[in-house]
Amino acid sequence: MSPGASPMIEIQGVTKRFGSFTAVNHVSLSVRAGEFITLLGPSGCGKTTLLRLLAGFETPDEGTVLLDGQDVSHLPPYRRSVNQVFQSYALFPHLTVRENVGFGLRMQKVAPNDAAGRIREALGMVSLGELADRLPHQLSGGQRQRVALARAIVCRPKVLLLDEPLSALDAKLRHAMQIELKHLQRRLGLTFVFVTHDQEEALTMSDRIAIMNGGRIEQLGDASEIYHRPRTPFAADFIGQANLLSVTVVHRNGTTVRVRLGEGLELTVASAELPVGADQALLSIRPEKIHISKHRVDAENVFEARIEEEIFKGATDQLLLVTDHGTKFHALVANESAIAEAFHEGDRVYCGLHLDDLVIVQPE
Amino acid sequence: MSAPALPSALPAGDRRRPGWRAWALLAPMVAWLLMFVVVPTAILFVYSFCERDEIGGVLFSFTLDNYRRAFSSTYLMIFVRSIGYAGLTTLICVVVGYPVAYYIARASEEKRNRLLLLVMVPFWTSFLIRTYAWITILKQEGMLNGFVQALPLGLGPFDLLYTPTAVVIGLVYAYLPFMILPIYGSAEKLDNSLIEAAHDLGAGPLRAFSAVIVPLTMPGIAAGTLLVFVPAIGMFAITDLMGGAKVPMIGNVIQNQFLQARDWPFGAALGVVFMLMFAVTYAILQRRGARLAE
């Protein structure tokens, strides 16, 4: 397995239908060895089905799934060097932690001495060594999650599949586990395919994110690309928050394009954003990208607005702005210090928007 | 046998001792059990130490002769034979019933209810009538032999009725639903992701079955075994009708002592031995189950 060689996972035009419902619709995806890729999307978007196609619990109706160069499309799960961490953990209730972790090794007929060492090592990695003789029902949710993880990595799979493994944990533990999982993945150099509907989780952990919707991959890219340059309205809206505004092209001017919002406000957008010939588009603006000040700001786009609503969120202030034309924007400003410029409902403010922060998304 | 230990999730309120209202609700059942189970068992126990008089009455005295006779080789043989037949019946019920129960449990809900109904259909007809139906099937000039002889193989007729084979067929037929239903109960609760996890970890269908599915449906198998094995040992109607009284089982012997031989004290002693045998076996199984659950 040399770096830069053929991809670890190669999904080619895979379609999976259940009756008349198409769960995965002609999806292609290629994953490098050692990559942490996240399938992100709402429930029913096909992310879990795609994971199950990789695990072997489902077989594709069309297309092929290659694992480390080998066509595994129709190989049963027990013949694939892939292991999964289940959403429900799926620990065997009649087996101890040690027996659960050792299950895969027992199935592969690993010699008991080797197995004992590998089980100890895996339990050590998730710091559960002292609980080896407990039964699953004697463990907390977080501990069970770690057992499920140890059980999957002890087999040294080529790819580790994780189906919303953190969704049952409380917020604090979930954040700690996100970091821990990421570290574990780096340390083992394993390829991770992670399924979640939680955009923050996806941004925190992934090398690349595939946003899925309606059985298709809407956008594939690294976290920053996905966040800053969403390509579809769905992607813009699903990750973080976005002001989505339909605009009409007023005139093109070399590197920039003048567009008008419904209510009449005009903004300047980089022309690279806009396909040639398009006269309608959808504009996405992240709330934190709007610079707000009581004094005139320096930016390509400046307009005045009134603060209609202010919600204190601790680290940030969430503002609802209304321009003189009546256009509404959501904005987010950092509460840098208690004495810094404070905004109140009813205040008139200047809003600044840089060219880079105005993103045109493709209407569907 | 005890179910796999679960964390006690009952709120404290559900664990309190029953109040007078609960006793009032339980009273009819308690009275029933007292009158028709506890008192008769006590009478049986007392009788087992009495003697039979010449005309078959019960003579109140104290003797251990009945028990001495019950443990003689003749009757021990009958005990052993009964256990053997009941054991074979149970085994066949597990082997035949498990796949059926598992299939029903994994079927879609609509199909599941329809199949469960089919399992219970035999209960709509009297047990005796169904047993007689088997007699017409198995007898020398019956349906089965008629069918075999109609084949151009030159086989049969076979002597089926009034043989041990007929007894086991009858017992399996009568008790199979009692094996299917509890196994269905535990298979239905089986989380599908556990089976997927087993496959995911490299277990083929057979290994997944033996290492995960069977252990997790063990409570159902155990309950079914108890429900089939215990009544099968004591069964006398089927052994009488289909075994032709040629292979007496302990149930037949006890029945005979009370009806034909009119030796109630000896019948009572056999009954007590029979009961104790169960109590002891059950206690051992319970204790082992409790230890496993720890």
Q: How would you characterize the overall build of this protein?
A:
The complex is a heterodimer of chains A (364) and B (294). Chain A is of the alpha+beta class and 364 residues long. Chain A contains 8 helices and 20 strands. In chain A, the strands form 4 sheets. In chain A, strands 6-7-8-3-9-10 form a 6-stranded mixed sheet, with helices on both faces. In chain A, a hairpin with a 2-residue loop joins strand 9 and strand 10 (216-221). In chain A, helix 2 (97-107) crosses helix 3, helix 2 runs parallel beside helix 4 and helix 3 (112-125) packs across helix 4. The radius of gyration of chain A is 25 Å and the shape is elongated. Chain B starts with 11 loop residues before the first helix and ends with a helix. Helices cover 73% and strands 1% of the residues of chain B. Chain B has helices at residues 12-15, 20-47, 65-70, 73-106, 109-120, 127-138, 143-150, 164-188, 192-200, 205-234, 237-243, 250-258, 264-293, and strands at 51-52, 58-59. Chain B is mainly alpha-helical and 294 residues long. Mean pLDDT of chain B is 87; it is low at 1-12. Classes of the chains: A alpha+beta (364), B mainly alpha (294). Chain A binds chain B through residues 55-57, 76-78, 82-84, 86-88, 90-94, 103-104, 106-108, 135, 137-138, 151-152, 155, and chain B through 4-7, 191, 193-194, 196-204, 207, 211-212, 215-216.
